[in-house]
């Protein structure tokens, strides 16, 4: 096999950190030196550059495509259309197979791939793309998500009918509860389209192999699921496609769907040359799915003292043209539609629909984010209506261990929500505004105010997120662990297919191996598909699932070491462990070094780890024990708002999160910080603006993500109430803070301004001209 | 065209450069220095920050020809062999690195800051790094790293 320059290789994990410590990242030194090879850094002699021609129209028929002139362009080696897709013409997550590899006769969203070019320079490829002649019949785009959900006369977007999924939840008797409620509040909420905006663009290298297959070096969240889609489309058996995870520059859900994988492989197989594809930022905005925009209508009834009697909820999620993860996003929005509150009567209807708007799918928080903004806004509204403060109303209705979610699922692990809220409330507040330094003010160095018109507000948000896949999915993980003596030292090699996307999975894999095997030296093998499925790096699940797989694989290796003890030492011990490089008997003390027991032996074990089974949601009532694990974050936000200009400065974000068990404190803090930042982005700045199905702001000039000036200092309280079913008691960390920071910040802006603010992101005009749309 | 400039102390010459290529492209694809990153290629994210004649610039906004005869220092040129620069060391130690795609640009930008300002205040650090986007960390640990690197540098002075 020919290996590209800078292909991933084994990395030794530095330090000796066990579970609970914070050793340095194995890839950290390479990353700060600029030597870590991302998927866009690969290079191979004789490689070509691939490019993708995309649709300028959100909905149009392709009358004809003429590639002749492009193909004749000097330096061009291939121009491919749907006719050149060797196998299945469609791919898609969750066996939906509804997304064309390249458009066939029509396009259903702006940016849909139509043709591919391979050329000897990226600019040559771009110029050749300009020479592909397409005759269009442009159609009126279908962009009304509400009509798509409810109007049977609304035209179909694709073969699968609208709605893509309707998931009801029915608990108790909402009609009767409506008669009994003493206080009723209603809200209509909207969430704009958020982009993952990972910094490393979609990219990779496809290398044609001698066996007629292809070697793919890509940045993805789930190689094995990629493979299940790539292989049929290429018309190749899976074993002829060797995938290796290259450096991933962030993911956040945006790499769960395929991007350039099949395209680069097609070009490589056609040209017989390695083909590199790298999207630029503009293309990246069209190259992956986004967070579903949502339209939500809520009605809550309660007693005068604040106990919620019923919730009547409608959620519409616009998935765009293709299914992607919409079906499961709807499941999350429905099952977590009223959040972590005990409500005796519930009616929820969640819909996912097809339109010609940008395709939406997985993003950190996955359906729970949208609902959380609405249900937390409702809690504040109810608090005001009952004359209670925001923390008290939440405590009155808070779920706890033993409570039931809307689905009827009993919360089996500890959930000290009321106490977490109390903690958040009692954390010290930041000092009052100091207007003498302009940099502290909303607008900062732009000098838009000297403190006049600036008002402070405080708000709270609580989010509950399912960890691991739900609704009966067996998203197991696999780990291979090898223990042998190398250079006189016992060395563990950990090999999984799990995607390190920045979250620090490789760090904790090493920590777990050290903990279970008692060795210091751990080497992390590159993730590839020569080992079993690890599931996706999403749903905050890899610490639980791949962490769990590494743990059980290490336990199996450890048993094999113990089996060597009688061979080496001539007698058996019932009470062995591996600690500090030694084989230890609880009764007889240190027996020997691990190296001495291992000798020349190479022990390798591969194990799968499965979480406990979950059920689906009842199609009529939504009932079921659907979630594997639940995790919670509570935020308190403090903001300063310039009410004259509508500028917001988030002064401080405090987070209280229960992580079950801290495996690596630095990583846990980093996840909470980063998740909170993405929630801040959704609260006050991030939105893909779409008009008539067309994206208006596909650049970092116009799609803003938080800078270091936008992110306030954060105060964290990290709790460790173990989940007894999870490895080490841990809970997934990454997503919960992305849920709760958004409503906390918006609540704080409401507190400062007295405005309703029913849409995120909150824009300046929403504050200065509240009636504006 | 032919382009020739000094990179990390070494004189480099490349031929057949298309006039539209950026300094970033030439570094990454022609000189084997992919450390400077291609996150936006429109001067918004700072991940391609390099020194050009001692001043931090976005390499994506510099045409390759503009670098002719000048001195470029990239993230690959900060460490002294295996000895990391204090900024690099602090980034690893403090957990300022997650996916790491923003890291090379931030490291160069922070390196420039603490060269210029002995003990930067938080407000100065934030202002200096405001042109560098990070999507993973929420910046808290990046601030920790810059504070630590500045303190160590001051102690060495």
Structural write-up:
The complex is a heterodimer of chains A (773) and B (157). Chain A is of the alpha+beta class and 773 residues long. Chain A folds into three domains: 126 residues, Aldehyde Oxidoreductase, domain 3; 334 residues, Aldehyde oxidase/xanthine dehydrogenase, molybdopterin binding domain (Aldehyde Oxidoreductase, domain 4), CATH 3.30.365.10; 133 residues, 2-Layer Sandwich (Aldehyde Oxidoreductase, domain 4). Helices cover 26% and strands 26% of the residues of chain A. In chain A, the strands form nine sheets. Chain A has a seven-stranded mixed β-sheet with strand order 4-8-2-15-12-13-14, with helices on both faces. In chain A, strands 10-19-18-17-11-34 form a six-stranded mixed β-sheet, with helices on both faces. In chain A, strands 1-24-23-22-28 form a five-stranded mixed β-sheet. In chain A, strand 17 and strand 18 form a beta hairpin. The model of chain A has no long low-confidence stretch (mean pLDDT 97). In chain B, helix 2 runs antiparallel to helix 5. Chain B has two domains: 74 residues, Ubiquitin-like (UB roll) (Roll); 71 residues, DNA polymerase, domain 1 (Orthogonal Bundle).
């Amino acid at each position: 096999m020919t290996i590209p320059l800078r292909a991933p290789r084994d990395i030794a994990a530095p330090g000796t950190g066990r579970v609970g410590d914070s050793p340095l990242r194995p890839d950290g030194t390479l990353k700060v030196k600029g030597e870590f090879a991302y998927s866009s850094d690969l290079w191979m002699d004789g490689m070509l550059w691939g490019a993708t021609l995309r649709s300028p129209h959100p909905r149009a028929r392709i009358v004809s495509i003429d590639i002749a002139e492009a193909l004749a362009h000097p330096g061009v080696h291939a121009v491919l259309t749907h006719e050149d897709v060797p196998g299945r013409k469609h791919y898609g997550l969750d066996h939906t197979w509804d997304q064309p590899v390249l458009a066939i006769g029509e396009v259903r969203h702006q940016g849909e791939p139509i043709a591919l070019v391979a050329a000897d320079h990226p600019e040559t490829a771009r110029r050749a793309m300009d020479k592909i002649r397409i005759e269009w019949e442009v159609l009126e785009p279908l962009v009304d998500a509400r009509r798509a959900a409810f109007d049977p006369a609304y035209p179909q977007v694709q073969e699968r009918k609208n709605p893509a999924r309707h998931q009801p939840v029915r608990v108790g008797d909402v009609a009767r509860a409506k008669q009994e409620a003493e206080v009723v509040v209603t809200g209509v909420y909207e969430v704009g389209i958020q982009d993952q905006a990972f910094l490393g663009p979609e990219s990779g290298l496809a290398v044609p192999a001698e066996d007629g297959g292809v070697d793919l070096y890509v940045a993805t969240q789930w190689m094995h699921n990629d493979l299940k889609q790539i292989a049929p489309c290429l018309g190749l058996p899976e074993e002829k496609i060797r995938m290796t995870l290259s450096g991933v520059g962030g993911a956040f859900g945006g790499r769960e769907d395929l991007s350039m994988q099949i395209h680069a492989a097609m070009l490589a197989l056609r040209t017989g040359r390695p083909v590199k594809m790298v999207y630029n930022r503009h293309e990246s905005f069209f190259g992956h799915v986004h967070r579903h925009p949502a339209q939500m209508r809520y009605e809550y009834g309660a007693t005068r003292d604040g106990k919620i009697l019923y919730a009547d909820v409608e959620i519409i999620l616009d998935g765009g043209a293709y299914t992607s993860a919409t079906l499961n996003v709807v499941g999350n929005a429905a099952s977590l539609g009223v959040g972590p509150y005990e409500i005796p009567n519930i009616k929820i209807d969640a819909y996912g629909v097809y339109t010609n708007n940008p395709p939406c799918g997985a993003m950190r928080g996955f359906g729970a984010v949208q609902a959380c903004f609405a249900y937390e806004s409702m809690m504040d509204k109810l608090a005001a209506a009952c004359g209670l403060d925001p923390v008290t109303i939440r405590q009155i209705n808070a779920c706890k261990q033993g409570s039931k979610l809307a689905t009827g699922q009993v919360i089996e692990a500890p959930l000290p929500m009321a106490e977490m809220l109390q903690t958040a409330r009692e954390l010290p507040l930041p000092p009052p505004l100091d207007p003498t330094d302009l940099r502290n003010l909303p607008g900062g160095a732009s000098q838009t105010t000297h403190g006049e018109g600036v008002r402070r507000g405080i708000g709270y948000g609580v989010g509950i997120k399912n960890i691991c896949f739900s609704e009966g999915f067996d998203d197991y993980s696999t780990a291979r662990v090898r223990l042998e003596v190398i250079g006189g030292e016992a060395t563990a090699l950990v090999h999984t297919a799990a995607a390190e996307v920045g979250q620090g999975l490789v760090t904790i894999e090493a920590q777990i191996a050290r903990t279970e095997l008692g060795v210091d030296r751990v080497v992390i093998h590159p993730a590839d598909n020569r080992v079993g499925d690890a599931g996706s790096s999403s749903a905050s699940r890899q610490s639980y699932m791949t962490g769990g797989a590494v743990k059980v694989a290490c336990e199996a290796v450890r048993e094999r070491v113990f089996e060597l003890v009688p061979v080496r030492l001539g007698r058996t011990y019932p009470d062995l462990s591996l600690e500090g490089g030694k084989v230890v008997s609880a009764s007889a003390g240190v027996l020997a070094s691990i190296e001495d027991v291992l000798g020349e032996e190479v022990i390798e074990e591969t194990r799968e780890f499965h979480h406990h089974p979950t059920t689906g949601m009842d199609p009529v009532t939504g009932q079921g024990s659907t979630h594997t694990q639940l995790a919670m974050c509570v935020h308190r936000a403090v903001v300063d708002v310039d009410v004259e200009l509508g500028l917001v400065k988030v002064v401080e974000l405090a987070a209280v999160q229960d992580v079950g068990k801290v495996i690596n404190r630095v990583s846990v803090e980093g996840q909470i910080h980063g998740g909170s930042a993405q929630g801040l982005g959704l609260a006050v700045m991030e939105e893909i603006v779409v008009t008539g199905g067309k994206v208006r702001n596909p650049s970092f000039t116009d799609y803003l993500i938080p800078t270091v000036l936008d992110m306030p200092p954060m105060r964290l309280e990290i709790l460790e109430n173990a989940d007894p079913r999870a490895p080490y008691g841990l809970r997934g960390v990454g997503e919960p803070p992305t849920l709760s920071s958004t409503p906390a910040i918006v609540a704080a802006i409401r507190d400062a301004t007295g405005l309703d603010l029913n849409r995120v992101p909150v824009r300046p005009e929403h504050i200065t001209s509240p009636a504006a749309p | 065209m032919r382009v020739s400039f000094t990179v990390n102390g070494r004189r480099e010459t490349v031929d057949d450069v298309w006039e539209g290529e950026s300094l970033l492209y030439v570094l990454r694809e022609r000189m084997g220095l992919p450390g400077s990153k291609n996150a936006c290629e429109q001067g918004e994210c700072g991940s391609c920050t390099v020194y050009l004649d001692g001043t931090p610039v976005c390499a994506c906004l510099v045409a390759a020809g503009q670098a002719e005869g000048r001195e470029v220092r990239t993230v690959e040129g900060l460490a002294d062999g295996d000895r990391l620069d204090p900024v690099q060391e602090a980034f690893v130690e403090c957990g300022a690195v997650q996916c790491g795609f923003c890291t090379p640009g931030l490291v160069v930008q922070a390196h420039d800051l603490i060269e210029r300002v002995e003990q930067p205040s938080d407000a100065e650090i934030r202002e200096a790094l405001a042109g560098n986007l990070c999507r993973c960390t929420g910046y808290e640990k990046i601030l920790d790293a810059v504070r630590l690197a500045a303190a160590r540098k001051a102690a060495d002075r």
